From TrEMBL, chain B:
It comes from Azoarcus taiwanensis. It holds the Pfam family tRNA-synt_His. The keyword Cytoplasm applies. Required for the first step of histidine biosynthesis. May allow the feedback regulation of ATP phosphoribosyltransferase activity by histidine. Pathway: Amino-acid biosynthesis; L-histidine biosynthesis; L-histidine from 5-phospho-alpha-D-ribose 1-diphosphate: step 1/9. Keywords: Amino-acid biosynthesis, Cytoplasm, Glycosyltransferase, Histidine biosynthesis, Transferase. It is found in: Cytoplasm. One of its GO terms (cellular component) is cytoplasm. This is ATP phosphoribosyltransferase regulatory subunit. The keyword Signal does not apply. The gene is hisZ. GO terms for biological process: L-histidine biosynthetic process. The lineage of its organism: Bacteria, Pseudomonadati, Pseudomonadota, Betaproteobacteria, Rhodocyclales. L-histidine binds at residues 79-81, 122, 126, 262.
Amino acid sequence: MRDSAVVIRLTRSPAGYNHRSEYIKVAFVSRITLALSKGRIFEETLPLLAAAGIVPTDDPESSRKLIIETNRPEVRLVIVRATDTPTYVQYGAADLGIAGKDVLLEHGGDGLYQPLDLNIARCRLCVAVRKGFDYQAVARPGGRIRVATKYINSAKAHFAEKGMHVDLIKLYGSMELAPLVGLADAIVDLVSTGGTLRANNLEEVEDIMPISSRLVVNQAALKLKRDLIQPVLDAFSGAIKP
Amino acid sequence: MRWVLPDHIQDALPAEASRLEALRRKLLDAFRAHGYQLVIPPMLEYLDSLTTGAGQDLKLRTFKLVDQLSGKTMGVRADMTPQVSRIDAHLLNRRGVTRLCYCGSVLHTLPSTLTATREPLQIGVELYGHAGLEADIEVIRLLAESMCVAGVPAARIDLGHMGIFRALAAGAGLIPERQEELFGLLQAKDVPDLKLLVKDVASPWREALLALPSLYGGIETLDHAAERLPDLPDIRAALSDLRRLAAALGELPVSFDFADLRGYHYHSGLMFAAYGDGSPAALALGGRYDLIGAAYGRGRPATGFSLDLRELALRVDSQASAGAVLAPADDDPALATAVARLRAQGQAVVTALPGHEGTWQEAGCDRQLVRRDGGWTVVALEGEI
């Protein structure tokens, strides 16, 4: 059955459209779609794709295409916003996706398989405050602070674990500004080199967790398209850099 | 924003409603033909009886209200399975095998997935009082037949076994909270976090738990499992059950997944799921839950499956059902006879009312009765009338 497919032929007749399904031999009955975001994740995924023998035919940085074909006709890429990757995979709009652990924690990777830590796009989720702010004085059970962040769930869980009350302010960007203008006492954000924090007179006071990107897989796809997905999984797994 | 429905709640308009109803009838007929008796549990009952023995998840998903008559908290059912177990354990009290089926709306406080409805139309079967594999085989065959009757393309059955997880978790000596965490990680095949969780677990349990997420696929998975899992009586029994099952289901497309766990609080043995081409998640879920009846005072072996008709209806080819026949407003007794004959054949006949506005197509008509050669004949409805 792998090399045949049901096609539905539409024919026009005076009474309207007729359709008739029949089996035909085709090269591929199914294809797999990998969702990933532009920038760092895409760049760092290229070597993994190469290990699986997959080479994209376009560069999303220069092309405006959102669906990118590859050298393998049964594999295509879709370019999505990082935070949307789990959504695409959960709906089955993509079979596989590459998403940061931060995104999965916020989205709640429910209904997704997350079998591989690809160890790419690495950074840390941390708490940072304005230099001179006495974080240790409030970072105790019963303490209360105002925190600006994009990562509401992760921040809530972290401070709840410490027994602290937090008033969370959801921001979508330029988090570093919040403590400087008195909007918040602290921020919870991703830090990779710490350059932005230093440039804005902030300091990291607490590490919440290391972050890297995961391969996520739609549950039904892994079962129904195992022949196509398993080799990609194996190749990725063999090409992960420590 | 008037008359907007709450999020994840929907009407079924005529086209969808007729599809849902056709599916419901087909499935209930199939269940009845296998001797499953229909029960109709109430929409709501005291919260205790709805959630006894169930996990936190079901408790959170149950809508609650206070009964003005008794002052007790009631819940709107979020799952009919516990209700049917209550009926078997507490009301029917039969000694032998009991086969029950059911169909009805359930309500969820939270949708189970992004696209899921909060009011699934749950339909399913339960078989009580037989602990043998024969009961599981019967139920899985019925599931496969249901998929076939419903017209699900390329349906396949995925099998797993809770006994393996329970044996490994117990062997590894994890406390219950850790076991639940482990359960969640295995469900997600989250190998990176799984490695962290089991890093202090002794051999061979650690290796066995780490092997579970990759033990999925065709029949060869059983051999891989036998090689990679410790040789324990419970695991040997589970593998031998799966092997016998696969042999008994020989003609059905089956696959295996040893980390596909569900129902931490109630599943006890074999588990199965049905998948169809193009659906992003399992269409039907089932398995053994020998422990649940005990919560209602009488533990009985139990196995069964259930599915959401709304989800199923999205995944099957919708054969457009034949439209209705329009009968003109006419006192001719021959017309009345023709109409009665068509209706007796199961056709829908719509009688024209004087002064009708709008087109007949919107009333679902695609043919009409016309007087021809002194009699009444059905012809296609041409044009907009």
